[in-house]
Amino acid sequence: MFTLLHIHTTKGSLLDSILTVEEAVKFASENGMKAMALTDHGSMASFVDFVKECNKYNIKSIIGNEIYEVDDMWEKADTKEYTQPRYHLILLARTQEGYKNLIKITSVSRTEGLYKKPRIDIKYIKENGLGRGIICLTACQAGRLSRYLTNGKYDEAEQFVSRLQNTFDYVVCELQSHNTEDQANANKLIYEFSQKHNLPYTITTDAHMLSDSLKDSHAMFVEIGEGREVGESYTDCYLQTEDEIYEKLSDQFSEEVIKKGIEESINIADIVENVDIGLNKGNIMPKINIENGYDSHEDYLRYLVFKTFDEKFGHMSKEDQEIRRQRLETELPVLYVVDYTDYFIMLYMLAKEARKRHIPLGYSRGSGANCLCLFMLNVTQIDSVRWDLDFSRFANLGRKSMADFDWDISKRRRKEMVEISEELFGKENVAPIATFNTLSTKVAIRDIGKVLDEKEDSPYYKQIPYKLRDEVAKMIPTIKTLNDLGEEEEKDVLLKDILNKNEKLKEVHDKFPLWFKYVMDVEGLPKSMGRHAAGTLITPTPVTDYCPLCYDSEKNIMIELEMHNAMDDLGLVKMDYLGLETLDIIDDTLKMAGITWEDVDINHLDLNDKAVFDTVYKNGNTVGIFQMESAEARRMCIEAKADNVEDIIVVNAANRPGTKESFPTYCQNKLHPESVEVLHDDLRELFGKTHFILLYQEQALQLFRHAGFPEDQVDNARRAMGKKIKAVMEGLETDFRKGLTEKGWNNEQLIEIWQLMLKQSEYCFNRGHAVAYGLLSYLTAYLKTHYTIYFMASLLTSKSDKVQKISIVINDCKRLGIKVSQPNVNKSDMKFTALPEKNEILFGLLAVKGLGESIVYKIIENRPYQSMNDFVERVADKTAIITLIKAGAIPTKDKMLLLKKYANSLFEKKDYKPVTTVPSPYSKLIPFGLDVEDYRDGKKVDKDRLLADYNKAKEKIYIEEQSQKYKKHMMEFKEKYAKDEYMWEFDTLSMFLTNDPLKDAYKFTKTDWDMVEDGDKTTLFCVIVDIKRKKDKNGNQFAYLDLYTPFGIIESTIWSSQLKQFSDDVKKGNCLAILGRKREEHFFVEKIKPYNTWLEQMRKKGVAV
Questions:
Q1: CB 208 within 8 Å of CB 17
Q2: How many secondary structure helices (H) and strands (E) does the chain include?
Q3: Which CATH superfamily is domain 21-271 in?
Q4: pLDDT tens digit string along 955-1007?
Q5: What are the domain boundaries of the chain?
Q6: Which of 105, 680, 945, 977 has the fewest CB atoms within 10 Å, i.e. the most exposed one?
Q7: Bridge partners, residue 170, by sequence
């Protein structure tokens, strides 16, 4: 049976293929194929998924790559006269060595050889022995052999194939089953060439889609992704059966020729060995060196764990110490059995080095807090016993997967953790992990609709305007799901999943079926590859022994695989280093306050500080408080009357999809304990910390344990419930009911508790993570309460590049009675500076828009400045000086006057320089009003007097010209730099600091923007700070507005009808009261009133303004 040897898939051939690995392998299986190859463009991004899928169907997987080969991979500059051509070439791994070599070829082409596309040359492959174990096919019409032959370069074709034969194990000429004139011509020439030189040939399909019916969808996908029309270049580029190949080529070749090409595809599959990529071989740990004197890594880990026992628990009672000692003795054997020993030593090494460098680390992330051993190793800062955290949630004898500890690290120093990893385990053994971004349904609706609306040959030309595209996109709901840490993630529901459930969408579909077909064919496909925000791979030998490397968008090395491929499939170890801005805010606060992290050690800090709860949580004053800044979190703190740390931990866990529903019960039970009804008395102990709601995953573990499940099965039972596998669920329910029946539960109670477990299984939160984040939240609240001015200054520094956020923080400073002052070139630091004696925060120079680090350093290094002239002379950066004047950083009572003085200083006034000779001939004097005859005495001309008058005339003209130049200079300067004085402060500081036009509006602003429900109307008090005017297809003007509000910058749209009606009001700098509707964090304008008009109306109604 024919073997597919040339196919492209969505991840490896981004924006070029709409064929998924799953579709391709399923097609091969359904058509009786015993083997198939994967040959993406210059990429091996899909090879792990491909091998897994082939194994599922018992198909031999052939790993390949359609490389871009060039004459010289080191040449990376095009000229007008010459661009080095790229040619396609198919490489297939024949042996295990060939597979390793293919990884190296791919890595080199995507890093050192990268120039627009991943490239490599045959010379490099040959010189480095990378062709061994590899089969080579000559590829498509973009291949060198096809190009040479179709252009009559026969000698070059022979030389090229000779080079291939001297480089690779086996070289095969490639014909393609595409029924186009160009391909037919290429096929004929390549076939004749193979026969003349006794070369094998085979037939491929060069598939980019599942079937021919998808060719228009594929063309649309390429057009919206890359902005290019495909024409006929992808004709017949789909997965073909053997019968279809005979049909496509019947006009080009005899049946015997076709049969031989198909047989060669089978022969290639036969000579390819079964390559082992390392699937399901267990964990591959980096090499861990331990100190001398220990017989095993287990002994060494035990030493490290107990080494800090007295330091951490020496102050406790013997009873509490013994509880923790027993906990450690329980954890260690489990860690040995599940083979986490080296991983824990590795975590210890990383944490030790990070703390040595004073890199701020979070308390814990994920279930790591549930492990007391990690606390002993100083990897976490959470005493698992104190916080009643279940170890089995982190590790148990029934768990087979690798431990997965995530780090929260100072955002500004995250890169140092990667450097530490490289120093400890080898630079070539460390690389970040890739991630893929997909084409969302909303984007597909808008982009495909736009193409169909604008293309003159489209059936829907000028029928799908922006407004319709926008309305349809907004019909697509966004669902919130939880990741492994229980954190919210948003994604669009697929159109294909909801079309038949939504009448409005069905109406649009019936009118524009082709639009929706294209969307459903391409929605959710990968569109770009980027660097994972946190994942970093660490291997025992160079990374390229396991997977290919590539560059990210900034030309930094990363692996070309996703997280699940590298970790779950290949068993490689990764670390998640997540940059957390809160740690930088805390670190800056401590440094300004003159204290250290040890001074606020969470294990010794007073966690019952009434002032913290009264000042921050109870009243919802949570600006800057970790995890509590959203309107929903603030509301929950107020409703719960949060007065203890457990409340904060609960809010952190409950503010998620699903669990929010049970929060009112939590508040009711907490505030009215006398009316609490408990399903069964057993739950009083199990659910006591959450006032009898099921919130944490650990509570589910306790319930299974209470029902008699063995210790090595409790966490697996919890996980199985989340997956809702029917057969497994039935067995679990039987055992669960049996166990609780023996504890005295009746049938009604059993039904109710099981239904509750089912409902919450998807949403229950890991208590360990909630505790760690709740305590970090408490620390920020503690600092805001007791070190307020330092905390707010640090918070402002962290938000200085976020226009939407900085005004919110400054408004909170006003509420706290802290003055935020304009920057000052003689006083301001790079960051915001706290002046506690004045209860004032000085604006940071780096927060001034338009100032870079280098100019700020220069300003600070050269001060103090005695005057404006002194500053100008020593800084001498025109853009910076203008920006600083507008920002108020150069003290003056009149910024406009100072700016004009500076403009004046920029004009170089030049004195007139007299000439020393009279021009010749004398007729040149006439334009200056001079007649030589007036200076003649007889025959002799008085040249001295003539020269003097000539210079007077020239000087007068020169002075007038200088005057005009000066006026032009000042006019141009004013036009470019001195307009809209009322906006200078916002333009440079991202807010109105000294003269807030909305200062009276805050008393009327009762509902926060993020508390306004999607689709609801609300009134915004705002200043228009930016306007982008657009035209729709009918030539009607509409606009996008950036609105400065008490809630930060809000983006809005005003459609053409409203824009016409309120055109006088829609001007930059206008202060307005706008009624509109909120949709997906966007604001749509309906009515506008000038803000002062609105205020006057309020006054007439008797409101004190």
A1: yes
A2: 43, 25
A3: Metal-dependent hydrolases (3.20.20.140)
A4: 888 989 899 999 999 999 999 988 888 889 988 988 888 888 887 776 666 66
A5: 21-271, 297-426, 434-576, 997-1100
A6: 945
A7: 135
Q: How far apart are CA 540 and CA 571, in angstroms?
A: 12
Please report, for residues 284, 429, 535, 551, the alpha-carbon distance to residue 567 in angstroms, rounded to integers and kept in the order given. 9, 15, 10, 20
What span, in angstroms and rounded, lies between the C-alpha atoms of 545 and 99? 10
User: Measured between alpha carbons, how far is 809 from 70 in angstroms, rounded to an integer?
Assistant: 55
CB-based contact 360:586 (threshold 8 Å): yes
CB atoms within 10 A of CB 347: 22
**What's the CA gap between 978 and 974, in Å, rounded?**
4
Neighbours of 857 (CB within 10 A): 13
Task: Give residue 718's identity as a one-letter amino acid code.
Answer: R
Backbone angles phi, psi at 176, to 5 degrees: -125, 140
Pick the CATH number of 997-1100 from 3.30.565.10, 3.90.79.10, 2.40.50.140, 3.40.50.1820: 2.40.50.140
Q: What would the two tokens of residue 217 be? A: 């969808």
CA torsion angle 211 212 213 214 (round to 10): 70
Angle at 1027 between CA 1026 and CA 1028, to 5 degrees: 125
List C-alpha distances in Å: 1001 to 461, 998, 1104. 47, 5, 12
Nearest to 625 by CA among 781, 803, 853, 516: 781
Contacts of 338 by beta carbon, 8 Å cutoff, 6+ apart = 395, 396, 397, 399, 400, 403
Nearest CA to 1007 among 1019, 996, 997, 1015?
A: 1019
Is 64 in contact with 94 (CB distance < 8 Å)? no
Could you identify the residue written with the tokens 């194990």? Answer: 169
Alpha helices in 827-942 (DSSP H): 853-862, 868-875, 878-887, 895-906
- CATH number of this structure's domain 434-576, picked from the four choices 3.40.1160.10, 1.10.10.1600, 3.90.550.10, 3.30.2380.10: 1.10.10.1600
CA-CA-CA-CA torsion sign (409, 413, 415, 418): negative
Question: For the chain, how far is it from start to end, CA to CA, in angstroms?
Answer: 85
SS3 72: coil
d(CA 1055, CA 466) in angstroms, rounded, equals 11
838 backbone dihedrals φ, ψ, rounded to 5°: -105, 0
- Structure tokens that stand for 445 in this block: 């609706």
Helix (H, G, I), strand (E, B) or coil at 455: coil
Question: In this structure, how many other beta carbons lie within 10 angstroms of the beta carbon of residue 895?
Answer: 17
Q: Based on the number of CB atoms within 10 Å of its own CB, is 1036 exposed (0-12), middle (13-18) or buried (19 or more)?
A: middle
CA 548, CA 53: separation in Å to the nearest integer? 20
Q: What is the Cα–Cα distance from 245 to 260, expressed in whole angstroms?
A: 12
pLDDT tens for each residue of 243-279: 999 999 999 999 999 999 999 999 999 999 999 999 9
Mean pLDDT, residues 75-82:
72
Q: Which of 149, 176, 182 lies closest to 265, judged by CA? A: 176
SS3 833: strand
**Long-range contact pairs involving 180-188 (C-beta distance under 8 Å, separation at least 24):** 180/232, 180/235, 180/236, 182/141, 182/150, 183/141, 183/235, 184/251, 184/252, 185/150, 186/141, 186/146, 186/149, 186/150, 187/249, 187/252, 187/253, 188/252
For the chain, the maximum distance between any two Cα atoms, rounded to a whole number of angstroms, is 141
- As a whole number of angstroms, the distance between CA 577 and CA 414 comes to 7
Which structure tokens are listed for 199?
Answer: 């070369």
Q: Residue 343, SS3?
A: helix
